[in-house]
Amino acid sequence: MAKITENCIKLVKEFEGCYLKAYKDEVGVWTIGYGITNSDKSITGTTIKQGLVITKAQADTWLRKSLEKKYLPLVTRYNSKYDWNQNQIDALVSFCYNIGSIGGRNPFRDFTFKRLHLELDQTRRLQRKCWNITKREEKYIRA
After folding, report:
1. What sections of 3-109 are H helices per DSSP?
2. 138 is a catalytic site residue
3. Active-site option among 6, 16, 26, 68
4. What is the pTM of this model?
């Protein structure tokens, strides 16, 4: 079963930064913590507005809950089709969180995943090819 790992949380934190005092983002949306907005009110139970201050622990908790309840399901709905490993799930959840879910919709579309899946397949084939070349050269050097 897919889950949110510490690697995923670390990746999101690296890109988002943490602001313990509410601020308006570049499009005028009140934001706090690691990018939490009022679209996450069902998770936070709090209205993000001017003057709101939270603790680092709250920011961490809200981030984890948001990733688990809102963004992981957007990614895992495609997992049976693409069979991602945990690192891929972490990266996709981080990406999804970074671009946000617009109007509660999944920001991804099948074509995005198809393209990603094809690129991963090409990468795997290239890795195997490089591995085989390396093995042949190793045999040649040892011979």
Report:
1. 6-16, 41-44, 56-66, 72-76, 79-82, 86-99
2. no
3. 16
4. 0.70
